[in-house]
Sequence to fold (137 residues):
Amino acid sequence: MAKKKSKTKSKARAKAKKAAPKRKSVKKAKTAVKRLKPIPGKPATLIVAAPEKRMVGKVTHYYNKIGVGIIELTDSDLAVGDEISIEGMHTNFQQKIQSMHVEHQAVNIARVGQVVGLKVKDRVHEKDIVYKVIKKM
Fold:
């Protein structure tokens, strides 16, 4: 008799599984992102052109109380008004140069080989790399 009970229980379980209601498929919400349409006669790569970055130098020191980063220019010149990007393991931001100082004197242009002090909007670390952002038009 014990065998009959186990068979009936397993049959009842199988019927319960089959009788379970089916789940309705969940539709994903449409995103608000619009796709860009290609311009006739132009290659698709020209639709969105990322700005080019050129290495300028490295951060050698940071004064946290006054928010000034000391940058050694090794590869390119810098001028007031240039857009720079400072990147490192813990750093990644862009800003426009408002003022530069070389040996406590305000300058408009800094040449390769000079050490420059820049007011930065966020904390920078030693060995962070500084790039000049060149926007293509």
